[in-house]
Amino acid sequence: MAFGAMASDTDWRPTATREALAARAAMLAQARAFLVERGAVEVETPALSSAAAPDPHLTSLAVDAPGGRRYLHTSPEYPLKRLVAAGFGDCFALAKVWRGGELGPRHQPEFTMLEWYRVGWDHRRLMVEVAELIAALLAPRRALAAPEVVTYRDAFRQRLGLDPHNAPELGLDALLAGAGFDAQLELDRDAKLDLLASHLVYPQLGQGRVTLLSEFPASQCALARVRPARDGEPAVAERFEAFVAGIELANGYHELADPVEQRTRFERANELRRARGLPESPLDERFLAALASGLPDCAGVALGVDRVVMLALGAVTLDEVVAFPWTRA
Amino acid sequence: MAVYSTNEWKGGLKVMLDGDPYSIMENEYVKPGKGQAFNRVRMRNLKTGRVLERTFKSGDTLESADIVEAEYQFLYNDGTFFHFMHPETFEQIAANPSAVGEGAKWLKENDNCNLLLWNGVPMAVTPQPHVILKVTRCDPGVKGDTARGGGDKPALLETGAEVRVPLFVNEGDSVRVDTRTGEYVSRA
Fold it and tell me: What is the DSSP letter of B79?
């Protein structure tokens, strides 16, 4: 079936082969063993939460449960950090997560995420481990050269000749127009960077190796710490993403531990949701309370497992590595 | 008119963009893990036939285009307009020459063809892929000329179209022509 073709409602067959599903299961086992051997404990966290991620670019799916509305988690981030705050140390979850509306050859609204936390580590140390795990999972079928670390700034400079931190708005607009993008898109600065990144920069990363893209603009910090500007260097988010063959596989942070800053970011995200006519997300007060009680210095990362399996098997769409994708679920 | 959001833009959906009707060909969802989601769309301008690639913000909307495709019977050309009739409702409709375009030379009275209507007005007329037309003028095939192998010669058809036909085709014969390539197919 071509991607995106709507399956008829009696299309009962799986879209993945038995071999693909067996390889997938073996890779899940391998990822678990990798982290367990390195001292992390596997935990399970609730899929249905009373709070939702306020990130305006994420759509949480809601379930009307007796006693009140619950939200399917978009990642196990908040409960895992509560465990870290409770002193559980290094831990990981291998979980189904849901993001409404994300459907394409490399997006499924329901997908599998491996998320883990390392206490006492920063993002730089964690991204080395992420590259090791990705290489180990891909190794039998896809040999990779040693990983490279590239800053977000250098990736933009090398491929677009533009400094994403300091480029004037006009420079961004000229580049977008030159690349044939419609001036009527009405994008804010970060969305313009997202457009350039997702269309022109990211597809070139990770050729034959893991590319670790790090030090994002401070405005794209999400739940990462921000390193203040110094010595003429702009403030940057202590955040990274991992790419192979132009495909984004993981997103990690040196985790923000400041409860006041975290609440401010959540509230700002909800303001953005309001401004865009999106429903506000109920804030995770238990998560904020955990930060207030003290989150140990730590780094965490979320890895898109389905995409890793897709790359390992040389598949082009997620449908090939999922028994029953969204259109047949 | 209905409004469709990016996630409803399936192949074949007809939408309005910058005042022109378009047909969606491909729609790819592109999203960085954190950040703005986009849809990279290939779409065909139904007026010009030109294919456009354009990136939209996910969630953007376009109005649906009132596009109807239907089979009509060609009645006659009054010198300015081409007149058609719906075979079931008998409703008659006039198309201007720009909508008929190159296809005009394949239109024979009472033949069926495909009309693309935008807001009820014919925007494109597509003849059947194969039509059978009578040869009104061509030179007789010269005997012994077969040494040239698959030789052919020009023939004028009843609709005014000119096609190359094999030497054995004579005036008064009916021939089958492929309207997409303008080439002779067989004697009919």
Answer: S
CB–CB contact B31 A103 (8 Å): no
Is residue A215 within 8 Å of A194, Cβ to Cβ?
no
Look at residue A1 in the predicted model and tell me its pLDDT: 39
Total domains present in chain B: 3
Q: d(Cα A231, Cα A198) in Å, to the nearest integer?
A: 30
pLDDT digits (tens, 9 = 90+) for A256-272: 999 999 999 999 999 99
Other C-beta atoms closer than 10 Å to the C-beta of B32 total: 20
Can you give the residue range of the structural domain that contains A82?
18-328
A224/A216 Cα distance (integer angstroms): 10
* CATH code of the domain containing A307: 3.30.930.10
Q: Residue A103: its chain B contacts at CB < 8 A?
A: 7, 29
Identify the domain containing residue B48 by its residue range. 3-63
Residue A185 contacts B, CB cutoff 8 Å: yes
The closest of B68, B62, B9, B21 to B45, measured between CA atoms, is: B21
> What's the Cα-to-Cα distance from A148 to each of A131, A132, A216, A286, rounded to whole Å?
9, 12, 16, 38
pLDDT higher than threshold 70 for residue B89: yes
ipTM rounded to 2 decimals: 0.87
Report residue A300 as tokens.
């965490």
Q: What is the pTM of this model?
A: 0.84
Whether A197 and chain B come into contact, CB under 8 Å, resolves to yes
